[in-house]
Amino acid sequence: MSDTFTFKAKPERFDDGTWRIKVPVVKHNHVDLDAMRRSKLFGPYANSDMLLGLMRRAVGVALKAGGDEFRSRVYINSEDVPAAVEVDASKFLAVVTVDLSGGFQSARRGVEVG
Questions:
Q1: Distance between CA atoms of 102 and 112, rounded to whole angstroms?
Q2: Does 79 fall in a domain?
Q3: Number of domains into which the chain is organized
Q4: Which pLDDT tens digit goes with each residue over 8-41?
Q5: Secondary structure (3-state) at 87
């Protein structure tokens, strides 16, 4: 099982055919605790107050949004989708999947992966 953060959002479409999607701030309602307990990376932190901070940092690193601090107004643009992100924007709500494995390692070590 890959450690991912998946969310749905409505893409803002522009006249030139491009789009952008706003990334939400990770909160408790985004986390599936059963999946986190089974995770090799996040399992030891599943019942900890540190889980959300680790996930926010991992998402920020995966999106190249500053690594240390997750910015709440991060957008994914159609021209510049990061390598750790997969976007399916074919429907009304786009499904965005962010791979957190590289971001979590850098959050633990304080060094950006990539």
A1: 9
A2: yes
A3: 1
A4: 999 999 999 999 999 888 887 777 788 888 887 7
A5: strand
